[in-house]
Amino acid sequence: MLEFLFAWWWLGLVESLILAGVIALVAVNAHRIVGDAPQSLAALRASMGLTVLALIGGYIVVLGVAAWALDAFTGLSGTGVAFMLSLLAMAMVLVQWLFSPYIINMVYRTREPLPGEEWIVAEVEQLARRSGLKPPKVVVSEMNMPNAFAYGSPIAGSYVAVTRGLLRLLPRDEVRAVLAHEVGHLKHRDVTVILALSLIPVAAFLIGRALVWAGILGGGGGEKRGNPMALVAVGAALLAAGTVFQLIVSHFNRLREYYADAHSALVTGSPRSLQRALARIHAAYEHNPHLVEEARSNEMASMLFIVAPLTSLTASPLVDVDYLVERLKEQETNPLVELFSTHPPVSKRLRFLDRLASRIGGIEHY
């Protein structure tokens, strides 16, 4: 029992040191890692493709190193163990994907639209048809924070949710732009894609933990027992890789937010409506701290929100919204905060929509 507790303490220490080291490295280089908003839709697509290739290529390397380490320093089949741990990660993410809509509906207190709110359903149905999709279920969340999100699974179906706070805050044309953004997430299958890519950091963490654990407990059995520190070292490297992979997944999620913004602009023909909506929502969070607390206490679907609710903004929600949009475009961003965020800074999203607006007349398909 004492040996087990000691090993668990060492595992926690190793993980903490690795996380601190990775954060320190990225903090120093955050300004080099984080770039500006995509210059065009083509550049955005290229960035998404390169990000996926980097994740998959990195994971193949991780699996190879893990299999080699397990085979070289334990009596276990390295390929078999790495494969089994990858299957475990897949099972964990699959269960989350299948049942998360039911949990989200419960946590965010969703309901069907009431009389007087049917126009939301009509808007979503029209946007879905224009996007070539089967209309999703439309629900309203009884939350005061102004936000919207899209989610779903094969057993629960697809949903677009808007909060009561969003409907109170935005005029209809801006609500429509937000709904188009969420329909864009469904068209691009973002929930499925992001969860699939999330397998990579989860699997890297599981395999890295297994190697560190085996090393702390003295290695494997049989003739190959005898180099526990090598196992700890390789496991630590995989834990670090898992942290990096998670940052890359967050980067990919930020790119998909730009992609959903592009969908909204193209399907509605009004990038300005989405810009105004983003500005109003950000201003509402800044000047209503209780909304931030409500968002903080319900973080489960925060990755799915139209905006990240915990970022700050120095502007008054009472000023002219177009003036606010222009001020926000010039706002400086914190590279380190962005690096760990699932959403791009609002200033970058506004600038991206500007670039898209200058080309929107010549874009018919994307």
Automatic annotation (TrEMBL):
Q: Give TM segment ranges.
A: 6-28, 49-70, 82-104, 193-216, 228-249
What remark does the entry make about the cofactor?
Answer: Binds 1 zinc ion per subunit.
List its EC numbers: 3.4.24.-
Where, if anywhere, are coiled coils annotated? none
Query: Encoded by which gene?
Result: htpX
Localization per record: Cell membrane
* NCBIfam families referenced in this protein's UniProt entry, alphabetically: PRK01265.1 (NF002322)
Q: What is this protein called?
A: Protease HtpX homolog
Q: Which GO terms describe its molecular function?
A: metalloendopeptidase activity; zinc ion binding
Where does the protein principally reside? membrane
The catalytic residues are: 182
Q: Which family does it belong to?
A: Belongs to the peptidase M48B family.
Q: GO biological process annotations for this chain's record? A: proteolysis
What sort of enzyme, by top EC class, is this? Answer: hydrolase
The UniProt annotation places Zn(2+) binding at 181, 185, 257
Q: Which GO terms describe its cellular component?
A: plasma membrane
**Which prosthetic group or cofactor does it need?**
Zn(2+)
Q: Which segments constitute the Peptidase M48 domain? A: 117-355
Q: What highest taxon heads this organism's lineage?
A: Archaea
Gene3D superfamilies xrefs: Metalloproteases ('zincins'), catalytic domain
